[in-house]
Design a protein that fits this description.
- By secondary structure, the chain is an alpha+beta fold.
- The chain has a domain at about 10-95.
- It contains 7 helices and 37 strands.
- It has a 26-stranded mixed β-sheet, with helices on both faces.
- Helix 2 runs antiparallel to helix 3 (about 60-80).
- The radius of gyration is 55 Å and the shape is rod-shaped.
- About 25% of the residues are buried.
- Mean pLDDT is about 80; it is low at about 1-5 and about 430-465.
C-alpha cells in the first residue's frame, strides 16, 4: 500500500535526476577525492567550540555530522548508483543496463532493465549471461510493449503474450523456440480468431476457428493451416454443418453432412469435398432417400432410392445421379412399374413395363424412354395384343413391309393359317420358251418381269396346281394371325428370287385404334403426312408407307391395309 502511494513521487525523481547521474561515470571518483579532502580538514583539526554546531539546545560535533554524511553517501552510492546484487535482491530492484548500438547486452545474470543508447527501455526481466531467461517484457523503440512472458536463451519459451505496435493483443499461449505452438490468435480489433496448436506460424494439430461474432466455424485437426483429419464445421446459424474427415481443407473419408437446420442429409464417404464411395442421403425428417454408391458428388454405381414413407422407389444402377444400367422402378404402392435397362434416367434397351395389376404390359426394347424396336404388347389378363416393331412409343406394323416370311414367324411364331393366293412356277427345262410355260400353266400374267438371268415367270390362280414338270414353285401367300387380328401378304420378287411382305392388314383392335389416332394427329400438325378421304375410307401417306383405313358408320376404324408407298 505504501509503495503505491510513494512510487508516483519517487519514480519521476529517479527518472529525471538519478538516471542522468548514473551516466556521469567520473562523478564517483571526483566525489571520493572531495570527501577525503574534507575529512582530513575536519578530523585533523583540534577540538574547539567551532568543532560543534548548535541545533536548539544541542551541540552536535561536526565530525559526527561528517561521518553520518559519509555513511549516507556511501549507502546512497551502493543503493542507488551501483548497488551489489544482494542489495537489489533485498530491495527487489532491477538494475539498469545500457545496450550498445549493436544491441548486445553485458553478460549479466539476474533481473535487470535494458536500455538503448537513447535511454529507451528495451527489456525488463531476467537475464542469464546477457540473454533473456525467465519472465520478462520486451519493448519496441517507441516504448510499446511487444511481448510479456517467459523466455529462454533469448527466445520466447513458455507462456507469454505478443502484442502489435498499436498495443492490441496479437497472440498468447505456449511458446517454443520463439514461436507460438499452442494458444490463441487475435485480429487487429482484438477478436479471437483461432485457439489451438500451431507450427511454423500456421494452424497445425487440434484447434478451433472463430467467426467475427465469436461463434465457432471449425473445430478439429489442422495441417499446414487448413482442416485435416477429424473435425467439425458449423453453418452460419451455428448449427453443425459437417462432422467427419478432412484432407487439404476438404471433406475426405467418412463424414456426415447436415442442412442449415441441423438435419442430417448425408452420411458416408467423401473425396476432395465430394460425396464418393458408399453413402446414404436422407430426407429432412431422417428417412433414407438413397443408399448406394457415389462418384464426384453424384449417385453412381449400384444403389437404392426410397420414397419419404420408406418404400423403395428404384433399385439398380446409377450414373451422374440418374438411373443408368439395369434397374427396377416401383410405383407409390410398391408395385413394379418397370424392370430392365436405363440410360440417363429413361428406359433404354431391353425392359418390361408392368400394368396396375402387376402383369407385364410391354416387353421389348426401348429407345430414350419410348417403345422402339422389337417388343410385345399385352392386355391386363396377359393375352398378347401385338408383337413386332415399335417406333416412337407406338406399334409400327408398317415395319413388317419388306420382311421375309421367315423373319415374320421369328417374331410372331407360326401363323394360324396360310392362304396361297397364286403360284409362281419355274419350268424344269431352262431352255423351254416362255410362251410354252404360259400355255402349260394356263394362268394370268405374272406381276413382275423376267429376271436378268432366268426365264420369265407365270402366275397361276389359287385353285390351279403347279405344273407336273415344274421343279421350283414359289407362291404369293397370305399369313394369318387371328389372335393378333393381323395378316400379311408375302410375294415373290421374280427379279431377286426373294419373298417379302408387301402388305399388312389389321382387322381392328387396339393396334388399329392407336395407329388411326396417331395418323390423325400427325396429319393435323405435320405437313409431310398426307391425308385424303373417300366416304368412310381414309388414305394416309407417312414415313414411306401408304395407309388405307376403313371406318364404320360411327367413324371408328374397322380395318387397315398398309402398303409400301408407290414410287
Amino acid at each position: 500500500m505504501i509503495a503505491k502511494i510513494v512510487n508516483p513521487f519517487i519514480n519521476p525523481i529517479k527518472k529525471k535526476i538519478l538516471m542522468p547521474l548514473k551516466r556521469l561515470k567520473s562523478w564517483p571518483k571526483l566525489l571520493a577525492k572531495w570527501l577525503v579532502k574534507k575529512l582530513k580538514q575536519i578530523l585533523g583539526s583540534e577540538l574547539s567550540r567551532e568543532s560543534y554546531i548548535r541545533i536548539g539546545n544541542l551541540y552536535i560535533a561536526k565530525k559526527l555530522i561528517a561521518i553520518i554524511l559519509l555513511i549516507a553517501l556511501v549507502l546512497y552510492f551502493f543503493i542507488f548508483i551501483k548497488p551489489p546484487k544482494f542489495v537489489n535482491k533485498w530491495l527487489n530492484r532491477k538494475p539498469a543496463i545500457s545496450v550498445n548500438a549493436a544491441g548486445a547486452a553485458p553478460a549479466y545474470t539476474g533481473e535487470a532493465k535494458l536500455f538503448n543508447e537513447q535511454g529507451q527501455l528495451l527489456f525488463e526481466g531476467e537475464l542469464k549471461d546477457g540473454q533473456y531467461e525467465g519472465a520478462g517484457k520486451l519493448y519496441a523503440e517507441d516504448g510499446s510493449l511487444l511481448y510479456e512472458g517467459e523466455l529462454k536463451a533469448g527466445k520466447f519459451e513458455g507462456r507469454g503474450k505478443r502484442y502489435r505496435p498499436d498495443g492490441t493483443l496479437a497472440e498468447e499461449g505456449l511458446y517454443a523456440g520463439g514461436a507460438l505452438v499452442q494458444g490463441s490468435l487475435y485480429d487487429e480489433s482484438g477478436r479471437l480468431i483461432y485457439t489451438g496448436a500451431l507450427a511454423n506460424g500456421m494452424y497445425e494439430g487440434e484447434g478451433t476457428l472463430y467467426a467475427e461474432d465469436g461463434r465457432i466455424l471449425y473445430q478439429g485437426g489442422f495441417k499446414a493451416g487448413v482442416p485435416d483429419g477429424k473435425g467439425r464445421k458449423y453453418a452460419d446459424s451455428g448449427n453443425l454443418l459437417y462432422e467427419g474427415g478432412f484432407a487439404n481443407g476438404q471433406y475426405a473419408g467418412e463424414g456426415s453432412l447436415y442442412d442449415e437446420s441441423g438435419n442430417l442429409v448425408y452420411q458416408g464417404g467423401w473425396l476432395a469435398g465430394q460425396k464418393s464411395g458408399s453413402g446414404k442421403e436422407l430426407y429432412p425428417g431422417g428417412a433414407i432417400a438413397y443408399e448406394g454408391g457415389f462418384v464426384n458428388g453424384k449417385r453412381n454405381g449400384d444403389g437404392t432410392e426410397y420414397a419419404p414413407d420408406g418404400t423403395i422407389r428404384y433399385t439398380g444402377g446409377f450414373s451422374n445421379g440418374r438411373y443408368h444400367g439395369a434397374g427396377t422402378l416401383f410405383g407409390e404402392g410398391g408395385d413394379t412399374l418397370y424392370e430392365g435397362a436405363f440410360r440417363n434416367g429413361v428406359y433404354h434397351g431391353e425392359g418390361k413395363l408392368y400394368g396396375p395389376g402387376g402383369m407385364v404390359e410391354y416387353e421389348g426394347t426401348f429407345l430414350n424412354g419410348k417403345l422402339t424396336g422389337n417388343g410385345s404388347w399385352y392386355r391386363e389378363d396377359g393375352t398378347l395384343i401385338y408383337r413386332g416393331k415399335f417406333a416412337d412409343g407406338e406399334p409400327d406394323p408398317a415395319a413388317y413391309l419388306g420382311m421375309s416370311p421367315v423373319a415374320v414367324e421369328a417374331l410372331l411364331g407360326p401363323s394360324t393359317g396360310n392362304d396361297v393366293l397364286s403360284y409362281v412356277a419355274v419350268p424344269a427345262a431352262d431352255e423351254a420358251p416362255a410362251d410354252e410355260a404360259a400355255a402349260e400353266g394356263g394362268g394370268t400374267e405374272a406381276s413382275g418381269d423376267a429376271g436378268a438371268e432366268g426365264p420369265a415367270a407365270e402366275t397361276v390362280e389359287e385353285t390351279a396346281p403347279p405344273a407336273a414338270n415344274d421343279t421350283i414353285v414359289q407362291a404369293v401367300v397370305r399369313m394369318r394371325y387371328q389372335e393378333l387380328r393381323m395378316a400379311f401378304i408375302a410375294e415373290l420378287d421374280p427379279e431377286t428370287g426373294d419373298t417379302a411382305v408387301t402388305e399388312v392388314r389389321l382387322g381392328g383392335g387396339p393396334v388399329l385404334e392407336r395407329l388411326h389416332r396417331l395418323l390423325e394427329e400427325l396429319a393435323q400438325r405435320d405437313e409431310s403426312v398426307g391425308k385424303t378421304s373417300r366416304g368412310q375410307t381414309d388414305y394416309y401417306t407417312w414415313n414411306g408407307a401408304f395407309y388405307i383405313i376403313e371406318r364404320d358408320a360411327e367413324g371408328a376404324p374397322k380395318t387397315a391395309t398398309i402398303q409400301s408407298e408407290p414410287a
